[in-house]
Amino acid sequence: MESRELQHVEHGFGPVWDTDSRVLVLGSMPSPKSREAAFYYMHPRNRFWPVMAALFDEPVPDATAEARRDFALRHRIALWDVIASCDIEGASDSSIRNAVPNDLAPIIRASRIGRVFTTGGKAAQLYRRLCAPVLADAGFDTPMTPLPSTSPANARMSLARLVEAYRPVAEACVAAGCRES
């Protein structure tokens, strides 16, 4: 196995959201495949999109940024990441150092986001440490729910278990009246 070194990485692309967004799903930092495609959860073995499709009883959106953006916005889900830049080894969240957070306040202020979900333990940890205090100082008290990672590195979680773990995303959408009938 080839040894990798930490490299400084910039996020490279912006959030997916609009003024009708009700739920914000935050990862830690896009994987190299996602950065290459300039969109979220684009590694072919990442299970994020199959999980979302199962939650909303729809086919998995095509593996294009446009189809996936449309899916998220249609369900009033905003997508972004906790980190704007960091030092990281490949896609290893456990290697993240020197994380600089994204400023979440502008999109929360300009939308109808009432709930934040983080995907993976590192995203939840960094959100609590770097983002929550800034949001609180800005007057936001948006609840955050940590979810397991959909990364292929989280092999212990089956697709069925991930769908159950992510059910609160769909429930938050239904509660906010954003799920299409």
Level-1 CATH class name: Alpha Beta
Shape: globular
> In terms of per-residue confidence, which ranges show pLDDT below 50 for 5 or more consecutive residues?
none
Classified in CATH, the superfamily is Uracil-DNA glycosylase-like domain
Number of helices: 6
**What spatial order of strands do you see in the largest sheet?**
3-2-6-7
**CATH topology grouping:** Uracil-DNA Glycosylase, subunit E
Largest sheet: 4 strands, parallel
Question: Based on helices, strands and strand pairing, what is the structural class?
Answer: alpha/beta
Radius of gyration: 15 Å
Number of domains: 1
Distance between the termini: 48 Å
| Strand/helix succession | EEHHHEEEHEHEH
Mean pLDDT: 92
Number of strands: 7
**Architecture per CATH nomenclature, i.e. the level-2 architecture:** 3-Layer(aba) Sandwich
How much of the residues is beta strand, in percent?
Answer: 15-25%
Could you estimate the helical fraction of the residues in percent? 25-40%
